[in-house]
Amino acid sequence: MRKHIFRVKLDVIKMILPQLERSENMRLPEEYEEKNTGKPVVYMFAGVCAFIVLLFSIVFFMNAEPKKSKTKDTLNQTVADNETEGNTEVKSNLVAEDLDFWDMYPEDDSKTEETTKSDKKEETVKEDDPSTDGKHTKITYADGKEEWVLISQYLPKNTYDFTKLVSQSGIMKYYVDGEQTSYFGVDISKTQGYVDFNKLVKAGVDYVMLRVGARGYSTGQLILDEYYVDNIKGATDTSLHVGLYFSSQAKTKEEAVEEANMVLNQIGSYKIDYPIVFEMESTTNDTSRTDSLTKEERTEIAIAFLDTVKNAGYIPMIRGNKEWLLTKVDLSKLTSYDIWLADEGDLPDYPYQFSMWQYNKSGSIDGISGNANFNISFIDYTEK
Questions:
Q1: Of 19, 164, 255, 283, which is most buried, counting CB atoms within 10 Å of its CB?
Q2: H or E stretch covering 79
Q3: Cα 368–369–374 angle (5° rounding)?
Q4: Residue (of 152, 150, 176, 151) closest to 164 by Cα position
Q5: Phi, psi dihedral angles at 187 (to 5 degrees)
Q6: pLDDT (tens digit per residue) in 277-306
Q7: Integer CA distances (angstroms), 58 to 50, 54, 93, in order
């Protein structure tokens, strides 16, 4: 750059010298010079001075450009050196126009980071909310306490389409492609007293589930339901399909087998074409001999009862409400047995597959004087 400027200076001087020589040769006539000897000399001197001032101005201006360029080069080198040494603080006298506009106003990364963290936190809260994540189901205990339980991805799911469930005079019916595929039943124990089974047939009942007996909550004594003998005789004398159930309080697998054998011994020659059911009811406002059982122990006891029934040639089934099934037994070990769900009220939200549903414990039907327990079976067990 310096060589270029020097070359320009020489070119300018070379242009000026011929002009000075030419002005020396341009002389006026002698008469004119003699008459105007003073003024022309002054004018010429002033012109030469002005020209020299102009020349120096041009040279000064051209010298200023390389200095500015040198300043920028020096600054860039200084910044590069600082970055290499890890020094991020650079002192400079640069003005705004020497910088990139956006570098003068950097983005506030802290605010952006806080916003991102806030968004992620909100998403995490939504994902972790068991009431909306679709991975949990709510259970309500007898004392009103609520708990969200994780739904297992390995157990068979409830696949019923309850939009196809129709209630007619309190009787639930399930339809598939316009055809009824469900069966209406009632479960009966000493609570119902005397039952007219012929009237139940006329009222549209398809099957009955009869309580055989129970084991005492405290004594552990086996007790035969006081109405069982009349009920089994009355039911089998009609066209009703018949199943049985037993209210267990077994504390060991041996006691469970004892309960199952009691049921089998009470069948005699009666035809049982619906399941034989194991249930272990939880007591309210009292204690029972099974309160201290673990989930594993309770599950093994249930399996002992059910396998004894199955080995005798009957259909085994386990009964319980949503809370008992989800918290008191290990359902992953009970997948080979059908479930009878006891869940009053609206449509059941039990997440897993079940075959029978007790949906009303205060029904009214001809043939039972008191409250009747209404059930729907989604399977025709006479074909199993």
A1: 255
A2: helix 38-85
A3: 45
A4: 176
A5: -105, 140
A6: 999 977 776 788 999 999 999 999 999 999
A7: 13, 6, 27
Two tokens at 305? 């009862």
Residue pLDDT, tens place only, 72-124 = 455 455 444 544 444 444 445 555 555 454 455 555 555 556 656 555 555 54
* Angle subtended at Cα 276 by Cα 273 and Cα 281, rounded to the nearest 5 degrees: 150
CA dist., res. 362 & res. 373, Å (int): 6
What pLDDT is stored for residue 117 in this prediction? 59
Whose tokens are 């400079």? That residue is 92
Are 257 and 304 contacting, i.e. CB atoms less than 8 angstroms apart?
yes
Beta carbons within 10 angstroms of residue 370's beta carbon: 10
CA separation (Å) from 84 to 78, 184, 243? 10, 86, 88
Cβ atoms within 10 A of the Cβ of 200, count?
Answer: 26
Q: Per residue in 126-161, pLDDT tens? A: 557 998 998 999 999 888 899 999 999 999 999 999
Other CB atoms within 10 A of residue 84 CB: 8
Q: Which of 9, 4, 11, 3 is nearest to 60 (CA)?
A: 9
- Residue partners of 156: CB distance under 8 A and separation at least 6: 335, 352, 353
- What is the Cα–Cα distance from 279 to 305, expressed in whole angstroms? 10
Neighbours of 147 (CB within 10 A): 14
Q: Domain 152-383 maps to which CATH number in 3.20.20.80, 3.30.1330.10, 3.40.50.150, 2.60.40.1180? A: 3.20.20.80
Give the torsion sign (CA, 345, 346, 347, 350).
negative
Give per-residue pLDDT as tens, 338-383: 999 999 878 999 999 999 999 999 999 999 999 999 999 999 999 8
| 276-279 and 316-320 beta bridge pairing | parallel
User: Parallel, antiparallel, or unpaired for β 171-176 and 165-168?
Assistant: antiparallel
